[in-house]
Amino acid sequence: MKILIISPKSKGIGGIASHVSELATLLKERGFYVKIVSAENTPIVNIKGLKNSSFAFFSVFHPYLMKEYDIAHAHNLPSIIPLRFARAQAKILTLHGIYSKQISFLYGRIFGRIAEIVEKKMLTWIDGITAISKSVKKYYEALGLKVEYIPNAVNIHKLPKEVTKLYDNQIVYVGRLSKEKGVDILVKAFIKTKLDAHLLIVGKGPLEGFLRKYAQKDKRIHYTGYLEHSKALSIIAGSDLLILPSLYEGLSTVILEAMALKTPVLASDISENKELIQHGETGFLFPKGSVEKLAFMIEYLLSKKDLLRKVSEKAYQLVLAEYTWDVVIEKYVDFYEKIIEAENL
What we know:
By secondary structure, this protein is α/β, with parallel strands linked by helices. It folds into two domains: 2-153 and 324-340, Rossmann fold; 156-322, 3-Layer(aba) Sandwich (Rossmann fold). The chain contains 14 helices and twelve strands. The chain has helices spanning 15-29, 51-58, 80-85, 99-107, 109-122, 134-141, 183-193, 208-217, 229-237, 253-260, 271-276, 291-302, 305-322, 325-344; strands at 2-6, 33-37, 68-75, 87-95, 128-131, 148-149, 170-174, 198-202, 221-225, 241-244, 265-268, 284-286. Helix 11 (271-276) links the parallel strand 11 (265-268) and strand 12 (284-286).
C-alpha cells in the first residue's frame, strides 16, 4: 500500500510532529511505501502568526502530491488544502484538536465562528476522519460527521535510559511556550509556593521573553530553551513532577511520555487531560487557569512522595494497556484497510 502523509511538522518535540514521525516509521517497518509532505521539506514563505496556514498553501505545489497513492493521510485541519490536491484512492484526516476552538481562543469569537463554518464544509471532502481524543470525536460527530477514535500514543521502546536529575524536588514543563499552554500560570503559581524546589521549563515560543524575565527574578526557575527530544525525555524521567497547565490541548503526548517514564503528572482539568488522568489514581488535576489551586497542589504533592509513586505506577499500567504505538499502529492499519475496502465497493 502506498501512503502519503501530509503534516505541518514531522520532526520535533511532542504533538503532531511526534505522532507523524512514529506513524511513518512504523508503517515503513510493516512494508508500506510512505512519503511525507511537511514544513521540513516544503519551501514556505511564513505568514506571521499563520505558520500552519502558510504550510497548507505552499505545500499544494509539492511534487509528492503529483504521484499516485492508495491513501493520502493529512494531520490537522489546514492540511486539508494540500490533501484535496493529492492523487489518492482515499483521503483521510486526523484531527489533533478542535480547530475552530483554537482559532477562537487565539483570535476571538468572530474568527472562531468563521472557522466553524469553514471546517464543517471542508470536512465533507474527506473519505475518513480520525480523532486522537474522545472529546474531539464527540465534538465533530455532533456536526453530523463520522469519526473514528484512534488515540495518541507513546513508543515505549524508544524511551531513554538516561535520567537527568539536576535538583531535589525537580518540577518540569515541556512544550510550546504560548498563551494556550498556560505556562505563565505555572510560573506565577510556582513563585507563590516559596518551596525548596526547582522548575525547569523546556521549549520555545512567543512567551520566551516573559519566562526569561521571571527566571532572572527567581533563581529556582530555569529556562532551558528547546532541547532534543531524548534530552527532554531524560529531564522528565528525572523529575518529581511534570506539570501541564494547558487552557487548550489535544490528547497530550507529553503526558503519555511522563506516564510511560513513571513521572507523576499534574494537569489542568480540561476534558482532554481528564481522558488520561483520573484524579488521585493516574495523576492529579487542578482547575484550569487557577494560580492559587495550582500553587496549593504543587506544595501538597511534593510533600506526598509515597502517593506520587503509587499513582505513577497506575499511570504506567494505563499507558501499556491503551496508549502504546504497538497498539495504535494496528488501529491505523485496520482503518486504512477499511477505508480502501469501502472505496472499492
